[in-house]
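Narrative summary of target 7.
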Amino acid sequence: YTHNSPNMWSTASADEKLGLLYVPLGNQTPDQLGMGRSANVEKFSSSIAALDLNTGQLRWVRQTVHHDLWDMNGVVPALVGPTKQGDLYVLDRRSGEPIIPVKEVPAPGGAIEGDHASPTQPASDLSFNPKPLTGADMWGITLFDQLACRIELKKLRYEGRYTPPSLQGSLIYPGNFGVFNWGGVAVDPVRQVMFGMPTYLAFTSKLIPRADVPPPSDTKGSEQGLNRNEGAPYAVVMGPFLSPLGIPCQAPPWGYVAGVDLKTGNTAYQHRNGTVYDMTPLPLPLKVGVPGIGGPMITAGGVAFLGAAVDDY
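Modeled conformation, tokenized:
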């Protein structure tokens, strides 16, 4: 492999009987700029790759996002692959073919000059993808807070999921925390159910031309603030879509616990998870549902555990 290849950034799994290792792959950096990516990088970015445990050779690859600009990112042996954009890919472990149907859907165009956006994106029929945000979804702990969020939403480019990053600033929803993140999901193979923590927290992403990027400081790159993207034509400013008071602009809930019946592909339940007890001036145990990126666990006895919400008390 070459330097800056798509990386395995989450948790791998294996099927010893089939002799396959399943590797979730991310992106070549910078995440928000796709110009200059090679054909091999395009093939393996944002995908699930199956490797032969004996030889290390590639057996199959299934891509979940084409030309990723967002950092997203019968009875057969199945693999369940959760994604940041909310789609759950249920694949035949032997071949990578979908068990629950996957279709191509139109996606917004208009990427930054010199880059391009894929005209379609894969979409699984089993998905926790949220509805698009509107002005009616903006809220705040004061009317002024809510108004500021509505004004900011109007300024941002937003055409639904897969809105490309832009110079004016784009709303990215689902955001960089995903719907599902590196914590993944837990699956009970006997009961054939899945347990996970879908998170809904919008982000903003604004490209900054290289000539306008401020001089370097001691601040390191992170999921929030300025990512310098040294060597690329643009830096990016990104972070959660927050009100002037630091509260998410979109109305809660921002996090759930959810179960899926994998035999039918139906959501069995979805409940708000977590309170704002330690996040507000008054310690009110309001069960609004808070974000989280940790992973769940299911025991053989059917008990599920999750300690991933950001309520730290």
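The longest strand covers residues 203-209.
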